[in-house]
């Protein structure tokens, strides 16, 4: 069973930053790795579901033309909107993936500390929709905590075999930190002449 909505709603009604993301050294270090792992300097369009309090959102915004950040919890979406109010390239919406999925395709999708809340069937559906929503040449970045938590179906390490073999995507980076596992996958350009330079 997926972690229920009520679980997340309760966390945000108890605290404005349920995972104490703001100021944690682990979190800062993981964000720095995530940003450093993005193959391109700039992405025209990006999607970040599960944005929580919007710390990664604000950092990603510097590398993106437009960034859509979403969270299933209204309070989280509001916190992200408040944090990024000065960033006109960021849009924030309340959406519960995979059932609520935004229109369009993206050059970058970031799934950070989100996938262990899904059961196996939903995880497959999230990854299928993610691969479909990436533009050819686009990148998916995933990053997850390695240590067991009671509310998590998997850890970063046990997600790794699934994430390194997402149908339709090619694994580019497999980074194993003691605390987190980070992958970058790219959607290959279709068969045909030419490719696109990075940068
Ligand atoms: C651990 S926080 C992730 C924080 C952030 N991505 C980061 O790396 O700092 C997980 C967030 O995902 C949100 N979430 C959980 N299930 C979701 C879903 N199905 N769709 C969208 N957001 C979801 C939760 O409300 C919570 O804010």
Automatic annotation (TrEMBL):
It comes from the Bacteria. Gene3D superfamilies: Vaccinia Virus protein VP39. Pfam families: NodS. Transmembrane segments: none annotated. Keywords: Methyltransferase, S-adenosyl-L-methionine, Transferase. The keyword Transferase applies. The keyword S-adenosyl-L-methionine applies. One of its GO terms (molecular function) is S-adenosylmethionine-dependent methyltransferase activity. One of its GO terms (biological process) is oligosaccharide biosynthetic process. This is SAM-dependent methyltransferase. It comes from Streptomyces abyssalis. The lineage of its organism: Bacteria, Bacillati, Actinomycetota, Actinomycetes, Kitasatosporales.
């Amino acid at each position: 069973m997926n972690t229920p909505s009520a679980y997340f709603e309760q966390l945000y009604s108890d605290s404005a930053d349920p995972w104490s993301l703001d100021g944690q050294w682990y979190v800062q270090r993981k964000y720095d790795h995530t940003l450093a792992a993005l193959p391109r300097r700039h992405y025209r369009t990006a999607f970040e579901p599960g944005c929580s309090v919007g710390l990664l959102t604000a950092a990603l915004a510097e590398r993106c033309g437009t960034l859509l950040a979403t969270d299933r919890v209204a309070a989280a979406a509001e916190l992200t909107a408040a944090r990024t109010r000065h960033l006109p390239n960021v849009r924030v919406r309340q959406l519960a993936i995979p059932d609520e999925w935004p229109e369009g395709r993206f050059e970058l999708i970031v799934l950070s500390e989100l996938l262990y809340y899904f059961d196996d069937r939903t995880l497959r559906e999230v990854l299928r929709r993610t691969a479909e929503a990436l533009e050819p040449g686009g990148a998916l970045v995933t990053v997850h905590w390695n240590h067991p938590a009671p509310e998590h179906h998997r850890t970063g390490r046990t997600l790794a075999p699934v994430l390194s073999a997402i149908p339709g995507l090619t694994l580019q980076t497999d980074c194993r930190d003691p605390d987190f596992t980070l992958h970058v996958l790219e959607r290959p350009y279709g068969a045909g002449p030419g490719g696109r330079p990075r940068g």
